[in-house]
Write a structure and sequence with these properties.
single chain; 131 residues; Rna Polymerase Sigma Factor, Chain: A; two-stranded antiparallel sheet; 4 helices; 2 strands; elongated
């Protein structure tokens, strides 16, 4: 039984399943080792050697991927860094206003907003209603 002849096909299969060439090479080695250890159980009436090896490779890849999900932070494999989405600052609110922001509206407080005794209607951004 010639197992080594299928190495390149199995490498492609494992690479597609894992997304890593290094992991694929390791898993092909694992596949060939499993096949060699089970060579006496192979039944040529049930499947071709190629089909049998593909099945062993698929199971090896699924086992490896299952182990990754349980241990996402192995030494040397950090998760990809994510950049938090920038949010625009909330619109300024004044005393006595009930802001209801409108999409795409920018508001700059007028001079009457700075004075503590100004009426809320002069201070509120557009689309807001006085309390």
């Amino acid at each position: 039984m010639e197992l080594e002849a299928h190495r390149s096909e199995l490498t492609v299969r494992c690479h597609r399943m894992t997304g890593s060439f290094q992991d694929a090479e390791d898993l092909v080695q694992e596949t060939l080792l499993r096949a060699w250890n089970a060579r006496y159980r192979y039944d040529p009436t049930r499947a071709s050697v190629r089909t049998w090896l593909y099945r062993i490779a698929t199971n090896a890849c699924l086992t490896a991927l299952d182990g990754r999900a349980r241990h996402p932070c192995r030494p040397g494999s950090a998760p990809p860094a994510t950049t938090p989405a920038r949010r625009s600052p909330p619109p300024p609110t004044c005393r006595g206003c009930n802001p209801s922001p409108t999409a795409g509206t920018t508001w700059t407080p007028g001079p009457s907003c700075a004075s503590p005794g100004s009426p809320p209607s002069n201070c509120c951004p557009p689309g807001s209603a006085p309390c």
